Records
---
Amino acid sequence: MNRDELLRSMNEAIVAGNKAAAAALGAEAVRSGADLLEVIEKGYVPGLQRVGELWEQGEYFLPELISSAEAMKAAMAVLKPELDRKNIEARGGGKVVIGTVEGDIHDIGKNLVASMLQAGGFEVYDLGADVKLERFIEKAEAVGAGIICLSALLTTTMTNQKRLIGLLREKGLRDKYKVLVGGAPASHKWADEIGADGYAENAVAAVKLVRAMSGVD
Amino acid sequence: MSLPLLDFVKTRTVLLDGAMGTELMARGLPQGTAPEAWNVERPGLVKEIHGEYFAAGADVVSTNSFGGSALKLAGHGFGGRTYELNLAAARLAREIAPAGRYVAGSMGPTGKFLKPQGEFTEEDFAAAYAEQARGLADGGADVLLVETQYDLREALAAVRGVRSVSLLPVFVTMTFNSFPRGYFTLMGDTVARSAAALEKEGVEAVGANCTLNSEQMVGCVRTLRASTDLPIIAQANAGQPVIGQDGRVGYSQGLEDYVRFVPEIVRAGAGLVGGCCGTNPAFIRAMARIFNNKERS
């Protein structure tokens, strides 16, 4: 397989959500001594971007999105040890702490955002659902994350997104983190009102937002 | 002996109830508490809400058991109390239901995913719904309402689970998003596909609820009508949640704007109509006035 074929196949494997193919192509790249950063940036990542477009166009839905994210993660699992061995730093997006706020056990949307961020090269610390607000801050401090993502599905728990920002202020940490909010009841207006740094309507938009916030784009 | 609900549906537009969760919260349900716990801990308040909906003119109320599947309750540590909490839910609604009115046993989604996206099998889901259905049926529900489903596979598993323990009629509502290409669930199921599969599974009524506001619901009901001959259920949201000046959460579609589209929802083919998020007994009262005027004329 020549270089262009390899890159095109990688793109297609992600768009098709084909985990086995994505991993096998990664192994092929390692074996043939291909430029691994190039295969990520020009092979897999454009595939993931295409998946985002198909989602936005209403062609792809949640199952396709999850399959593609899984394929991307499978490819990275093959490439990462090789990159580490060669001391090559993949162009990562940094560290993100994510969770559903306390009082709220809904986690479908949050899981999807976490998965897509991970596929997009971010180091994701997923605290789960019904997460005490203090824990977001403790974790972000502990791992040195730059971004905190808060999910809430209920109109009653979304106020905890606001409370977290207040808590950061109290601790004098507000400027240290970008706080992004999401979930069915949230909106741009809500994000503005509570002084959050951003809002994303869906998982694809969330990845774009986090990339922009962390200076990847 | 009053008319079975399925026969009643043939006689006129059936009025369902509106939101339950926000009514519970208005009565002090603490954040993070499973609403179903109140069926045992604060039965009087749950009954009061049902009573208000009946008083507003609802023909059918839905039990306080939306999150009452065994899998969902397990998230609150109540998995072992599934039967008890659902039994209580149905009993409360039954006790306050006037003669000739009906109780629908509400069964919302598990919040989990089937394989390959998630960890669960269809059998797991069927079992989780079956345990819930047993409680609701024993508590006196007239019909079991599998509602707000975003995955057709889960809805079908739910129906099978319910059928394995009960002979009651089963209604299913799916929640659709509006896209330029039409209405789709989160998992990408279309209205036509959902209606056809549920009809084949033998459910007695299908419908749409949540997500869409009452204006958007009109088109969705039309699509449903073109897809099935079954009775159609429609329960729209009152728009999107918005934050008021006082910092309290409200909904973008006011009562008047909401009910303006109700006659169109009925004309589009819905035979059972009620509200979802953002609605309350006042919405149902306004809808009752519309239906009564229409039926008198």
Note: The longest helix of chain A spans residues 62-85.
---
Amino acid sequence: MSFPGPRRFSYRVSQALWVAACLAPALMLFTIVVAYPIAGAMAYSLFRWDGIVRGGFVGLVNFQRLLTQYPYSVRMLTAFWHNVWTFALTMVIQNGLGLLFAMLLAGRTWGAKIYRAIFFMPVTLSLVIVGFLWQLFLNPVWGIVNKSLALIGLGGLARPWLGDVHTALIAITLVNAWRWVGFPTIVFLAGIQAIPDEYLEAARLDGAGPGPIFRRVILPLLAPQVNIIVILTFIGAFNWFELPYVMQGVTGEPNHATDVLGLLFYRSAFGAVDTGNPDVGIGSSIAVIMFTLILVVSSLGAIYLRRREVEL
Amino acid sequence: MLPAGRTRSQHMGGAALAQTVLFVNTLLVLLPMVFMVLSSLKTTREIFQRPFSLPANLAWQNYSVVWDAAHFSLYFRNSVIVTVASMVLILVTSTLAAYALGRYQFRGNDLIYLYFLTGIMVPIRLAIIPLFILMRDLRLLDTYWSLILVYTASGLPSAIFILTGFFRTLPRDLDNAARIDGAGELSVLIRVMLPLVRPALAIVTVYNIIPIWNDFFFPLVFIHQDRLKTLPLGLTVFFGEFATNWALLFAGLTLAAAPVIGLYILMSQQFIKGLTAGAVKG
């Protein structure tokens, strides 16, 4: 195609304008409502704050206060370990079960499609609904969990699951797993179904039983899916907020047994009984630490994933 | 999978064991929901005295109390307005941007694409303090717009990622042929391109609409007037107000869960595909 000079020039200008017009709304929205606030969140941690009014630049003083000044120093450590514990428990129980269900659903399992749809259903439910529902079920006096235990002769096990410092965090982590387990199930199942039948056939012809086939063939080929699930579980565990907030309140009852970084961040940013008035400096420092943790782990995961994909 | 060298009865035993495990988990998923619905049709006294029995009389009035007295109709309306507006804005702005990035070559294309992509992994709620101050300065606190803007902007990176990839796979000659026929840029996009990217738009919709509908965090921070609260936030008000009226609480939960579960039953495959997009290839 050859256009005469002037027309071609005006065509290029109008096309450039069109491209700019297409990009402008998304660029503006993303810059003002995502990029700028995120940059702000980083910067805020380096300033002194009086309530919600910004003071002078103070360097790393907020981080120092967060790690040494009561109550933040104590709360921060407690919350951090609760996040780590939640991550570990979720990895073992939720993702372990997800992998088991995926293995059982792969192949020509009867009813696989219906099971798949049922297991995934709670993933669509709001965590507020899930939290309140299980709060009612776990009620120590009349909840069906303790009543069911009594019904099958295990009444001695009944306890105030959410009110006991030893069981509260485990209980809400299990509720979280109830809501999410369908997600790893689907991801692992897709991974298993993508494994060519010839690989499994070859292993079988070599005389490998189901155990070695799982460990030596299926699991290595599932590495990308495992990697994604580990990253998403990590991000989810360290961003955990809704379920502890709804079920255990903003301070992570009982006695901070379910306090996590997300709750502590919210309390310091907007004020609460145990942390006092809003302290934007402290809140922003917590945000920076959470942000860094998540970024480091997800980048490591992405690098590992890319390297594996090259190998395969 | 049938490993070689195992007898038929061994295989049957394995299949029975698998069915047992799968069935037990089916009960674990479904029984809580069945209990929720059954309890919502009982009286509070009945829930306490006969937790496992069917409701003696169906207490439908629980639902009308929740719908009117507990402002559920209001919370529903707010959730619908915020979700629909955000979703429309996400689809329109991300389609335009992805179209520009996927179909035109210009300086800075890769840079702008990467700029959007940095938003995928970043948990936007960690920026809640600057966002709160931004919304206050724009005088948008306690408005639908505070929520709509945050949901739209934070939905853009994944939407642009999915759609740009899709636009790039479409053959080069499609739009050029239309241009030679004299079509303007806008009509190339609307008449030629949009019908072809519909599957990707469906994925973007499911991927965003459920988390937006379910979101609790941003309304908690931005919305204080009861008449503007969305369903998840309204539920916390309702649970505070009717704390001891368990039958009403179950009715409220059932009502809140019904729309999403209803849609899920109708189109579970699309939900599963949309919500796991990004974690599952293809």
Note: Chain A has two domains: 1-33, 65-311.
---
Amino acid sequence: MAKLMGPEESNKFGVSFAKKLGADEAILITVISNERMARFANSSVTVTKNVSESGQVVYLAKGGRRIIGSSSNPEKASLERFIELLYKSMMSLPKDAGYVPLPSQGRAYRPKATHDRKLESAEGLLAGYVQEAIASAESAGARRTAGSLEAGVTTHHIMSSTGTVGSDTSSEILLNIRAFTDKDASGHGLSCAASVRGFDPEMAGTRAGYHSKKMRNARQLAGEEKAYQVLMSPTVAANLLGLVGEFASAFSIEAGTSYLVGKLGKKVASEDLDLTDRGKGDGCLDSRTFDDEGQPTQSTKLIEKGVLKRYLHNLSTAKRFKTKSTGNAGLIEPGPWNLEIGAGDSTYDEMVKELRHGLILTSNWYTRFKNYRTGEFSTVPRDGTYLVESGKVKAPIKGIRISDSLERMFSSIRLLSKEREWVQWWEVDTPTLCPWVLVDGVTVTKAYGDSPSQGS
Amino acid sequence: MLREEYKDLADLCVREARRLGAEYAEARIHGGTGTGFLLKNGEPQPSMLEDSFGIAARVVVGGAMGFSATNLLSRERVKDMTARTIKMTKSTSRLVKEPIAMGDSKLVKRKVWVAEMEPVAGADPNWLKSLLLEVDGRVAKLGSGANGVKIPNRIMAASAGVEEKYVVTSDGGKVESRVPRFNFFAILTALKGGDAAQRTIQQGETGGLEIVKRIRLLELVEAEAQTLAEVLKEAEKAPTGIMDVVLSPELSGIAAHESVGHPQEADRILGREGAQAGESYLTKDSLGTKVGSKEANVSDDPTIPHSNGYSPVDDEGVAAKKRRLIVDGKITEFLQNRATSSLLKVRNNGASRSSGFDREPIIRMSNTFVEPGDYATTEELIKEVKDGIYLKSFTEWNIDDKRLNQRYTGLEAYRIKNGETTNLVRAPILEITTPALWGSVKGRSKRLEFEAANCGKGDPMQGIPVWTGGPDTLLSGVRIVGGG
């Protein structure tokens, strides 16, 4: 077996070899990650996992041509062969209209030890946290639980032919737990943080257990399609508002897969809504100091008082939009790092009292779009879902669907809570700091099971 | 490329795991090479090349399961990883209330080699770029605005590559596979005044570059663009209420996948995916339960040649077979892996797959479809409908996590009057429970067609290639809502 190179050696070799081949520009990013996970179902651990990976992303440019490669083999000879293949493939292509040269002056990013070292070897911690979460859910009423706990540390090492060099390490711990009391009664809780300091498995378990108990004997809503006031938990609001990060990517704008096309400087939400993308900072789970083009990440206000202020850019899209990169590369597609929804001034209890004819949603899944350009979508609430009449919780509800458009919903935001929570899980890719959000006039539908020949 | 020395590492991993006390051990070298190309509004984006291999180890120790993976492929690393996996698994065995056993499934020693008439290695970036530019050119011409409709936004991606695996288990399974694939994906956005319509197209098969001609990719995408423009230009408001609905193969397929395939995955039924992907409206005692009419017949078949979900041997070394999920309206079989079939004391039908070396194998669908019926043609089936809708393609869809409450929004959809399709209608919505949908099946045509898809499940998420398909399927007396 050949010798495996370390990340800095690999980057240095890759950049120098690409230059030797004749590349005008080269970026090597080596990502080292170590993730541990414990999954459980029926309150029993089903599997523990440990995945250690080292991957290289290689960007080459020559005479206005560009190419990107991704390799997982840190052997010198393999990387050499891979870069040769990339270079040869690139030279067979015509010039790329989207090519923008890297800034001539590179940057040095000094590694800062801001991640939680406890998460570097978390096996012992995971077992304890799983036990704590399950016990909390059961104390709150759960009969059984299912979930996953994941902890990991990721380091990005970058080097470019223009002199950019540096590394950046982030850590995160994520718990997602679901509690059940019967087939139709479930609750969901999650906790995610960049360090064990902000991580709370007891809260997540208790919340899941509480809703699983409250959801017993859930019923269908009467009647057909109707508009309701909807109070969305941070988990639900982060799923929908978090999509703005993707829709605000200049790539989505150019591709026509965004309802924000042509809306820059226009009102796209209630004036109570502020939404910011943050590369790094307190609590950020996916903390990055530099992007994939070696540009510094920053804080970018996307929506301010309901007005769309910026799209997210890399160097290439920024040139076409006659603006500056926002430090959100993606070599092809700029994207968000961490999203922060501005806090409001309401408490949860005050928001519930505002509901005349409303629903409280604590979790959702399977958000799909009829049309990305118009933002029309539907999503399926699950776990704790409650009907509220005149400010009072009346009954747990099952079998509903939200069918609306993002712009209409965000324009009808009436209240946001003071308290916010970080959300990241299966349905929320981009870590999002999010409050409870009250929206007026949301269209709620349900499935019909009225086939005359059913069971025949 | 899957090297011999990598296979030695997998064998070493299994030996080491057994030596260190594992009751069961399995190692998988898994990876591949491929090339992708993307066009945005006709403009080439940087090409992408991928070369990735790694090793996965899965062990059972004291009834607990452990999984580790790395792409650092050296003897020292693999030995170290194996030892750590055993230690990690032992340390969590006290948290296992339901001990895991892999059972005695019939294992195979086999090589799976998918033939290529035109090797995918020929799909260099330039070849893919030229193909996409040709497809895009046809769409752009159609959407030039001459008929009042523009298609200014076109995302098109194509990729070709080879997936290779070597799976070895401590109880005798040994499988080596090499599966080439070609995939195409597009999102087309058509505009007319302030109105917009969008179509997502996905095509994928196993085999060589001959796939491009076999599926008539250029003509297919051109026809889709033509239809999209017509929908925007001509579709009228859809009727609502109770009516007969004919589902095309595309709609039959997505319904089969979402509301039959998923709820019949045994790991969901047993609760293992409860936290994210969800559970099932069915229980382990649901075999033999009636969930549909006599005409409801749904299968999953991993052995279909060229199929996107082709996997004749699974990632646990078990030979896969066609699974009859619903026969004459009754549930007859669940999708199984070694652990679930052992627990449920049924025959293992080999449905365990993983998306890469860094993911554990879990129960997955392959090619899930409504079985074809007796009606010779689509037209003959439509003749049965006095007043209804033919749903030919869909946009938005979703379903709850127990797989009971689903929604499909039509894109290309026609009003049926007196047994014939008439005008296009705009975005009719079928929002229906699973028993109501399958209980209303009244007839099926003979034609069987498939669509490619990526199915998501697992934690961490695993996207896996599948086909969904079926014939035209007549639903009697179901409710159509929305439309506009």
Note: DSSP finds ten helices and 26 strands in chain B.
